[in-house]
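pinned: reference chain
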Amino acid sequence: MELYLILLVAGFVSGILTILFGFAGGFVVVPLVYSTIRMQYPIHSTAYDLAFKSAVATSLLLMVINSGLATYQQYKQRKIHKQYLFPIAYWIGAGAILGTVLALNISSHVLKWAFALYLCFTIFDCLIRQFKQPHSNPQSVRLLTKTEQGLGGIFIGGIASALGVGGSVMTVPLFRRCGLDMSSAVALANPLSMPVAIAGCITFIIGQIIQPQHLGTHFVGYFYYPALIALIIGGFLGMKLAIQWTGKLSNQMHERGYILLLMLVLISILFQ
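pinned: its structure tokens
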């Protein structure tokens, strides 16, 4: 029971992070669901052996729900700039399919370290921007280049789906480099997490159909639904609270909070 209370709190936190920073909570959700499954099922059981894949699949399904709800809330507030959504959304979806296939068939260590290096670069880039802001003119706003849409979209989708996390840790810095403020960049991160989550879920479902795995009575395919229910309830409550704070943070404070989250994500990746 204690584990599910922790998952409820984790869902609450992920709901807040989804609204304020575009984080769907995968970096918190995946380790927690993984630990929950391994504590609930005996060693050498199928559920125990495939706990990480189940945690990733469950995180992706939660991402569909959280990102969808957050997108709806931010759309109502007219914070989503539609001209930035396509065609990068299609490339992210294609990358997500590739990343999920890799996650099903190979070790994620190479992806993990590639992602850690990317995080180091992004944190450095954000810190440099923080130092420059007081001494420079505001950056002019531009659209994404074709390279950023194509190669960037595949990279974002591939890494995010393979690790079971949202792409906001990559899309927000990308849109900041285009000159958008933090509020607009975060608002775009949520709908662009949807292709990752949907493509990832579909790939896990297809994988289950092709090569069925019988994990136990609390699983639907790879999805561990007791944890999912606790996370959904917590996430909904967290989003209801966080939506009241949107627009009240200054752009500089918003980005500083985002940098702190990136550092925490990097630490969690390095010690997994």
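why pinned: The first helix runs from residue 2 to 21. The chain has eleven helices and two strands.
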